């Protein structure tokens, strides 16, 4: 017997925490079904709502729900074994996934650590950078430079490189490590012709300040961390790809480890398979997650260059040559199997270059649709900016969003969104059709207009 949404909502309150919410907040809707791009919700009054998922379940369900290929991958692996420890053992899904990731990502990334969440992959990346510096004889290099406006996860070391003032973890600023924060890069946008537009003067000012900060602190720094081109949970801020080239140059100049956090941007979301490709650079370490399994199971990965891995392999210091991390569910076979199937859907078979796989047409459809259907929002008095990059559409208001009211108004129009701060944004599944994108645009704009005028 399936419990009704009304019962689920009443049982939920005071029992389980929801993200960034007090215990008694509960949930607004219960999910009864999910299929394709659709969610079936039920509210506290028992009313059912069929809605388009504008969030891809926090940017992960890029292929939609109950996808037959992904369902089959899980069932097939389940009939073999669902989990085994990764210490001293290995298995085909993990090896296959690691091979696929090395093939798809920038050429210099040759080695893979399979983590159980995006935040943990960032933790492992930071550990590896510290161990690299120790292996190179630089034990004094224990801090990281990160961009203001960034977000890298909720675990402690990851919190420490999130924006300490405007970020989501300001309450813990006094308990987080003292990292170096670089200026927030200037805003940019990519026009319909694919050209990048931004203030050259502001970029030059940013570069000067950044170079001075890095030069003054290089002796203590282990690495530089950034979300390439798009800062996600920190504010959906799009910045010039040239910033990445400058960070790459500084990392090379001072022998710092450049870490690209592609957890939100990876696998095509920004219009390139990986966002670093907008700048044509290769990071030393890259973290991926979210869309990796198509939203089916939690899994992430950290990839690094042979230069970093080789230095660690020859290490003689206190931490030795082992990468000191090992989650219980590392390399989970079910997650690895469905991730391989998800990558097949994104990139096609191996005879096709991953950069030209099916994702490219899908994301181009999203981008053109979002540009067309979110553009009218710019005429609303309370709208400060409308911006689109790949499969990301953002409506920025002049004030804080009334989150619950806008969410409810959107649901009444057949759309599920989860606004935050001053942003009402969408990251729809890649399989969304032009008609669904039109519905999404109308629903979001209508909700904003109803609540904010």
From TrEMBL:
Its cofactor is pyridoxal 5'-phosphate. The record marks 20 as: Participates in the substrate recognition with KAPA and in a stacking interaction with the adenine ring of SAM. It comes from the Bacteria. Substrate binds at residues 58, 151, 290, 326, 418. The keyword Cytoplasm applies. One of its GO terms (molecular function) is adenosylmethionine-8-amino-7-oxononanoate transaminase activity. It is an enzyme of class 2 (transferase). One of its GO terms (biological process) is biotin biosynthetic process. Keywords: Aminotransferase, Biotin biosynthesis, Cytoplasm, Pyridoxal phosphate, S-adenosyl-L-methionine, Transferase. GO terms for cellular component: cytoplasm. Homodimer. Catalyzes the transfer of the alpha-amino group from S-adenosyl-L-methionine (SAM) to 7-keto-8-aminopelargonic acid (KAPA) to form 7,8-diaminopelargonic acid (DAPA). It is the only aminotransferase known to utilize SAM as an amino donor. Belongs to the class-III pyridoxal-phosphate-dependent aminotransferase family. BioA subfamily. HAMAP family: BioA. This is Adenosylmethionine-8-amino-7-oxononanoate aminotransferase. It comes from Glutamicibacter mishrai. The gene is bioA.
